[in-house]
Amino acid sequence: MGAEAKVFLITGASSGIGEATARRAAEAGYRLVLAARSTDTLEALAGELGGLAVTCDVTEWDQQRTMVERALGEYSRIDVAFANAGFGSDRSFKGSTPEHWRAMVLTNVYGAALTIRACYDALVESRGHLLLTGSLAGRRALPGSLYSCTKFAISAMGEAARLELNGTGVRVTIIEPGMVDTPFFDEPPVGMLEADDVARAVMYAVSQPPHVDVNEILVRPTAQDT
């Protein structure tokens, strides 16, 4: 892989959609910057795929800045930034705990905003591509789901970023999966999407010519009725 190869940065890269996207991006010839809190798993994946592993809690601004500084120090550019880190909680305003809620909102919303801020200048420089992991749950409210509320915020954040970046050459895509068989579920239902199905949607968006900006991709399992 040459020094001219484009650079694909992924948060939440150690498992699920992030890991699957890293594999697809590596196959497509991208150099990888893989960020997550799970250091051992992350380093093993980066060793396998040949990428740069950066331990990063996306809720910490200094760690996000360090992530970008290391990416630029290693590769001198960022062409794709995928703000993918996130997790869910029980569907009930009496479920889970306030502490879990706080961590989820900070990761899913504040963390994604920090990734945009951290990568902003590098993406403008490369006329690159910003992607955010939204959800079907960010298009219609789920009963008692604060997670759904965080994904509504991602839908707004993606559009707000697109409007601000309009004219810079940076493209913005929100990836909105339905039910995906990832570590999100302790007992996954039958007939769900695989993480690789979502990764292929990501790669579809980034593979379009520069004048085409696929702003949203909603992808459901065939059997999902909502």
Features:
single chain, 226 residues, Rossmann fold, two-stranded parallel sheet, 44% helix
Task: Quote the average pLDDT.
Answer: 92
CATH architecture: 3-Layer(aba) Sandwich
Instruction: List how many beta strands DSSP finds.
Output: 9
- In the predicted model, the low-confidence regions spanning at least 5 consecutive residues are none
Strand fraction: 15-25%
* Main β sheet profile: 7 strands, parallel
Shape: globular
Give the name of the CATH superfamily. Answer: NAD(P)-binding Rossmann-like Domain
How many domains? 1
**Strands side by side in the biggest sheet:** 3-2-1-4-5-6-9
Order of helices and strands: EHEHEHEHEHEEEHE
Q: What do these coordinates show?
A:
- With 226 residues, the protein is α/β, with parallel strands linked by helices.
- Helices cover 44% and strands 17% of the residues.
- The protein has one domain: 3-Layer(aba) Sandwich (Rossmann fold), CATH 3.40.50.
- The chain has a seven-stranded parallel β-sheet, with helices on both faces.
- Helix 1 crosses helix 6 and helix 4 packs parallel to helix 5.
- The mean pLDDT is 92.
List the helices and strands and how they pair.
Blueprint (H helix, E strand, L loop, with lengths): L6 E5 L4 H12 L3 E6 L2 H11 L2 E4 L5 H15 L4 E4 L14 H29 L2 E5 L12 H20 L5 E7 L2 E2 L11 E2 H12 L9 E4 L7
Parallel strand pairs: 1-2, 1-4, 2-3, 4-5, 5-6, 6-9, 7-8
Question: Gist?
Answer:
With 226 residues, the chain is α/β, with parallel strands linked by helices. The chain has 6 helices and 9 strands. It has a single domain (7-219), classed as Rossmann fold (3-Layer(aba) Sandwich), CATH 3.40.50.
